[in-house]
User: Fold these one by one.
Assistant:
Number 1:
Amino acid sequence: MSTDAVLYDHPGPRAKMRNLILTIVFGVALLGLLWWIYSRFDTKGQWAGNLWEPFTQSSTWTDYILPGLVETLKAAAVAMVLSLAFGIIFAVGRLSDHWWVRIPAGAIVEFFRAVPLLLLMFFIFFGVPFLTEQPMSIFWAVVLGLTLYNGSVLAEAFRAGVHAVPKGQSEAAYAIGMRKGQVMTHVLIPQAARAMLPVIVSQLVVLVKDTALGYIISYGELIQLGVNNLSANFGNVVQAAIVAAIIYIIINSILTAFAGWLGRRTRRKGRAPRAAGAATQQATIEPGLGGGGGTL
Amino acid sequence: MDVFSDPANRDVYITGFLWILKLTLAGGVGALVLGVVLAAMRVSPVPVLRGFGTAWVNIFRNTPLTLIIFFCYFGLFSTLGLSLVDDIDLNNFWLGVIGLSVYTAAFVCEAIRSGINTVPPGQAEAARAIGMTFFQTLTIVVLPQAGRAVIAPLGSILIALCKNSTIVGTIGLMESSNAMKDLINANGNAVIPIFLVFAGTFAVVLIPTGYAFGWLANRLAVKR
């Protein structure tokens, strides 16, 4: 149901009046809040030009923000490719007919979905060197953590996608004599991947945000370089954090818009039968259903 | 498991998970209240309220939680001088709760809005036809039905919130991930048992919680 129009009637004179009053009351409250923030900044001298000025100099961008952004995107890109591979392998593993493949694959996926990513990164970065007796590369600690976590989430999403393909598809494939592997690779995965494409792109948003955890183990990404190091030189931590947040918001808004466009495009083509469409929509709303999933 | 027979280490473990529990509960309540209010704003007839809700969701959903918690400490506390309580640990805790709440509220708002979308239009139309106001339609007819549809999404949000509360460790709270880091650094010979105990605690609590929410959602679903 479209929420804009159904919940209330077209406003008559009284409703228009009430809406106007609400608009004014809330508008004033909002302005009051903004003014409070402004004056708070003002009394602490946060509007001082020298705190904002660094962002007009190119050296700030080339020395701090852009290198950080590149590291963030690099970690996100490598982790995305690896998580896709991890996700496909473990989704197929969980769908296997052999219990000795299905159960371990399921256990691994459930485990890594339920463990906080930060805990996982701490273990890889601080714990694994004790075991291998070699220092751990910080980039790979971040990427490995992201891969294990997001790969498990994607594995569940793929599994939901394969389940959403109508049963008739695999039955027809078996009927023309395809083997199990062929049914999976030629019939089920292509259709599931298409239906899950928006989910995969949405997961990319989660991945980009999660690279920020690298800051905690001092991986040189956007927060480390663009906020921590920058503000160490200019003393403008509030300003640097706001600029970094804007960069994240722009990147993630583009990705979200792209996911929405992909979703509309796959639906418009109408290739997926109606039943499958409904089922995948369910899956997009709750990819974390069952187990310790739940990705924000 | 020798590590955990030392009472000092056991204390570190218990305190760590107590912080996680408190953060999850306080953050969950804050996020739920804020999220419901935001969702009501986003479907309201008043454009300013809708705009505010949309802006909130777009800003906080797209910013990493690490940055929000970072800002709560270095921005709100250190720079702008917002001090909530005198005790440093408790102050960090409440700053973390603020960060978790404003971030998670954006997701709660979106979950509830998509729940409202699952209620058939006829329900709201019928409510309007018998003369209910917007507020009555929303609270008496639409939200109770939407609430049942959002149990599963809200469950995954709660689980994610619990896992996300480890990030409050960034601002110095000795929650479970910092506790694990300290134990690992002090007991290099028992890295794997330490990790398995900490990660296992999360898995043992969160996996059944997820299935319980799935079961509950199924049981309470509005059968149509």
Note: Residues 2-220 of chain B form a domain with the MetI-like fold fold (CATH 1.10.3720.10).
Number 2:
Amino acid sequence: MIDLQLLALLLIPLLGGGLLAVFGSRKWAAELNSLMSFFTFAASVVLTVRVVDSGPQVAFNEQFFIDQFNVFLVALTAFVAFTTSLFSRPYMRIEQHHGKLTTGMLHLYYSMYQLFTFAMLVALTTNNMGIVWVAMEAATLTTVLLVSLYRTPASLEAAWKYFILCGVGIALALFGTILLYFAAERVLGQGGTALLWTHLNQVKGDLEPTVLKLAFIFLLVGYGTKIGLVPLHSWLPDAHAEGPTPVSAVLSGLLLNVALCAVVRSKVLVDGSLGTHFAGNLMMGFGLLSVLVASFSLFRQKDIKRMFAYSSIEHMGLITFAFGMGGPVATFAGMLHMTVHSLTKSAIFFAVGHAVQKVGTQQMDSIRGLLQVSPTVGWGLALGTFAILGMPPFGVFASEFLIITTAMHEYPWATPILLVSLGVAFAAIFGKIQPIVFGETTAKPLPHSPALIPVFAHLLLVLMLGLYMPPYLADWYRQAAALLG
Amino acid sequence: MQIPYTLQFINLLAALLLLIAFAMLAQRRILSLINLFAWQGALLALSTFIVAYSTNQHHLYYSAGLTLLLKVMLLPYLLHRLIHRLNVRWDVETLINIPTTMLVGIALVIFSFNLAAPISQLAEGITRGLIGIALACVLLSLLMMLTRRKAVSQVVAFLSLENGLFFAATSATQGMPLVVELGIALDVLVATFIFGVFFFQIRETFDSLDITHMEKLKDD
């Protein structure tokens, strides 16, 4: 039964990729894209209910493994992928109307979008640490041509940088995986089972600590490049700023999470083997550095998408820090922050995308008075910004509050760094967004009506998570946090 | 104790791999670079074959065959066609300061031997001690990516990085599970195609394959 549900989850986007590779130029390609994404989301809901009710399961000869932690990311990924596909339908039509995209480019976009979803879902659900690597690389490959979709010099440069840096990073992660296999082979023996996470997790106490230490460094640096941890982040702002906005939304909201999931899985093994907090400490260090550097970089930004890309680095740093601290509360907070960050950041990118289309530039100095042009886009951006800055009553406040109070308790020295960074980020983003939303304008209306339902749906969810967390959800997250320890 | 001939032979091949990594670091002509890459693949296939023979691991025969097919024939053929169509076949790259690069390379080799020393001591079987060489190959390819300014040579460096990793997998662990290796091979192949698409896009936009044109994006 679980086999069937998982098969549906993985086959729908793969089938969607195939269908759109054939029919991507048709008029209804955007609708087909949304429909396939909706089916994927429905499959993820079925799978989630099943796993939350009956606990962790393996499928397909143990090649896939689903527990409360990764099913949460599966549901989040499928949901945001679905809403982003809704957003991209009018967005891409407007881009085409503006002459920035041709039908051929859209064709590529739709089929790659589905394959990208497929690659992420495989990376999340596979039990095999080697396949995690293969799927992460596949996710890079499917998005690299999307980043350069506009074929402008800047977008080509961004895509090349993304390709080369993530390629190198992920190659290092492969070396880490090889070392992990080397250690595992001595305990579990030759063959297929030695890379299976569930098996590794059972014998983690017997794995050779020196090898695992080195393996984790390579894995963290490798997948950390994808998460956008400082100092490996330089591809991220470029790729987010130059790619089409739906791609920025899924990169920021989803791909970074998937890479982090791989790191968290490795951390569980490594700290279990060492019996110390080595991996957690490394993650905390990288996380803090990312939060600090990213928030101070926010001031220098002039491009609006670039600024929110840096904000993603900041939040991913915060989440990495939370998972690094470990323990039920911090892990719970980390997962909650992943959820609210993904929802809020993609909502912001949706609003920003339409704002940029109205004004015709990404330079923040030239975007003024969104409220006058379109109250909905303006309020979407304003509320999204409030939410991402951690203002109560939005959910980001709740998760940041949990992370900081845990840090105060466990690692008091880290709290000033976190508080200063969050304060700086607040000042930088708020100062720049305020005149963009309120102010005088000269912009023209759009040829197609913008898609704002996804924006407000996301923000509503984030608001709900800040005010009231349903017991079902809280229980689910608590179980997942307990699994990760 | 008499060291078995197979092991001696693998050690020889490992040394040759390292030598080729250095040769690639200093090679300025793009055509010769691709030929060196093909040779690297051939050595890799041979060493995988010998490991397969001496440890009697059947799946390693497949991966040796896969290496031969992919890295000795298909990828070099694709690269040759690419540079022919892009008309950069006889291009010579200006590399600054080859002696310094070589010295840095030697430092990297020493570093990787040190890093791998505790792991090599744990290794059993015929291939102990080769992890250092594999790691050195990986780091040398990274260094090559840093020093190159042409898109094509960066890609060759990227592919030879993958060769180093593959050597690490066969020497340290006697091969990853076959499904993983197939996945990796597929990724590499797709990556090469995408790189090819990129070359044309880059040349169309910038009129050259020099990536110095592509250093404009900054935080301001």
Note: Chain B has a mean pLDDT of 87.
